[in-house]
Amino acid sequence: MSIYSLLPIHRQPERVRSWCNSFQATYFTGRHYVRWIAGGVTFIGVLWFIVLPSLFGHGQHLGPPLHDFGPPPSRPDHHHPVSLESPLHDAEDPPPRLPQSPSSSARSDAVRDAFLHAYKGYTQYAWGYDELRPKSGGRANNFNGWSITLLDALDTLWIMDLRDQFYEAIPMVASKSFLAEDKFAPFFETVIRALGGLLSAYALSREPIFLTRADDLGKALLPVFNTTSGLPMYAVNTATGATRKGWNVDAFWAEVTSCQLEYKYLAHLTGRKDYFDRVDHIINIMHNMSATTDLYPTQWSVKEGKPTNKKISVGAAADSGYEYLLKQYLLTAHAEPRVREMYLKSARAIVENLFFLSPNRKLLYVTDTNRRAVTRTFEHLSCFLPGLFALGTKMIDMPPNDRELHEWAAQGLAYTCYVSYADQPCGLGADEMVMDPWLINDGSSGRWIDHVNAWIEEGRPGGVPPGLHEPPPVKGGGTRDYRIKKNDYLLRPEVVESLYLMWRTTGDERWRERGWEIFQAIEKHARTAYGFASLRGVDRETPEKLDEMPSYFLAETLKYLYLLFLEEDIIPLDRWVFNTEAHPLPVFEWSQWEKVQYKIPF
To answer: pTM to 2 decimals?
Structure first.
């Protein structure tokens, strides 16, 4: 008899299934002694699987699983909140949720309701498309029609305990094909949104279809690495494997260095060596360069694997590259010390070279340099940095002086990010500002590290470092120390992300109050009949609504706000790592064979 006959009927190959049915009908019904044998085997099986476990205890296995994620859960009849502890440390019964204070519970519920409003608008008016148009109720396909809002929102549905909506989305994901012959997929955005969303949905739910689709997408994107340097191209045709550069430059540093979390986790789940090798080669390039520099230029040649400009930034073209240095180290359970060292060197260089004080209010901000000239540009996107610094101070070993400096930098910059919202008539922040120069504008007069060092040498008068005095918001007239360069509010997450991480790492309730102010302003000005809209004119009492609702609003902004107001820490920072699109991935340890396969130090 074939071993296939031992499989459940629905998993047997068709030809074997028919053979087994015929064999059982003719053979087992015609011979009495076989019936006795079958009965004996059944009795022994019952004894083995029921009686013996009760004698020796539950949860003991004859051998280790490939990955300790457990079986995919079946859809429950009644959905109850569950703990999101790491799948690597499953318990038989999840710990009970802690009761929330009435105010925090009401606030998290309000954010959840806002998410439901946005998600309902998407499902009703843009289902199957990439994004909702929140003013008109229309729809847009700006990411190949791969339902990017759905893929970005999956883990938020799970985290907010919206299990009906989560399971209703699975057929759409199951039917999804990532092969598009007439379109090019932007590598960076597709990795952080679609691949990250699928991997997080799998890690949280254990539903195998998400891993299957993540593997499909991961393989389809691999041709971007077929360059002479190994740095990825900007975009790929997933059906033909053709690639193309960006519009103006080969590649931005953030885009080539922000795929390691997703691909290393996917390599861990699938055992595909190519996933690890392709993205770790990029780290090799940057590590070799770190011998001569601690900060990385924003533009790169994919042919030569070298920078093509001299601009240094933590904004749009560089931000998540620095983020992924720290988070790779955290995701792989501190298994890759070289990225920790790269992060610490870069963080110190950022503080020493890119942090400045404004001349009057002494607001601490981070800016760019171009050929060493300070631009004084302060981007909303740069407001991820205080959260990253705060995370690093709590999660990794570092010299005490560095830890203290990073904590100060995180607190001062996070407040400036918040006050850039609180200063505006509508309570929402601008996308880009230019900070005022000092009277002696030699390019370094406001350099923060110089003020800090002078304060320390003077004996730390007042006990509060420069840039941490938190001047009150300035509404209407008065000196703000900046002018607005781009007055859009694009529903971006960076400020509330940092408020969440500051709250989780310090326990200071002021960060939650500031987040609540921002959420109320979003509700007041961005809400539409269909969802939430990006805004133009934050320097006015009533900004203009734009007809766009980026997928990251559901993936990041509302997720971080929801987590900010929860009393229980349902995604512990020592067990989960958020990718740059706020998709949590579980911390894992490389097995011995993986360390050998991927040449990871023991």
So the answer is: 0.84
